[in-house]
Amino acid sequence: MANAASGFAVDDDCKIKFLDLKAKRTYRFIVFKIEEKQKQVIVEKLGEPAQSYEDFTASLPADECRYAVYDFDFVTAENCQKSRIFFIAWSPDTSRVRNKMIYASSKDRFKRELDGIQIELQATDPTEMDLDVIRSRAS
């Protein structure tokens, strides 16, 4: 199921792990990487439920793009426990132009494969996806 525009297939493991995160809450986060040689999106890293947002941001490379999904728990003003699934397109300014282009052109199609994403966030540096930003977007 490769897309003619970007030519990248989505490894089934990506969808399976995302469903585990969404339905069973097996993971706190998932980091996805485009493997150019294999022409597919793969799971690069899985975060355990006990891991923090800091663990998540630390797992993103400083100078390469990634896609990521983060299951964010929060308490509403009415004191209700809620969670929101974020899709984060990480595209640091320091990454190579080609790297940015590949991730940008494949993003929408990849995101469509993950059914259940509630909020999308684009970040080019860590401040654009810090916890305050996540909190304000979640509520």
Summarize the structure.
The protein has 4 helices and 6 strands, in the order βαββαββαβα. The protein has about 140 residues and is α/β, with parallel strands linked by helices. The protein is globular.
Mean pLDDT: 93
Q: In terms of quaternary structure, what is this?
A: single chain
State the end-to-end distance. Answer: 35 Å
Strand percentage lies at 25-35%
Low-confidence stretches: 1-5
Shape: globular
Plain-language structure description:
This protein has 139 residues and is of the alpha/beta class. The protein contains 4 helices and 6 strands. The protein has helices spanning 12-24, 53-58, 97-113, 131-138; strands at residues 9-10, 29-35, 40-47, 66-75, 81-90, 119-123. It has a 6-stranded mixed β-sheet. A hairpin with a 4-residue loop joins strand 2 (29-35) and strand 3. The longest helix has 17 residues, at 97-113. 26% of the residues are buried. Mean pLDDT is 93; it is low at 1-5.
Key attributes of the depicted protein:
disordered N terminus, six-stranded mixed sheet, alpha/beta, 139 residues, single chain, 30% strand, 4 helices
SSE inventory with pairings:
Layout: E1 9-10, H1 12-24, E2 29-35, E3 40-47, H2 53-58, E4 66-75, E5 81-90, H3 97-113, E6 119-123, H4 131-138
Parallel strand pairs: 1-3, 5-6
Antiparallel strand pairs: 2-3, 2-4, 4-5
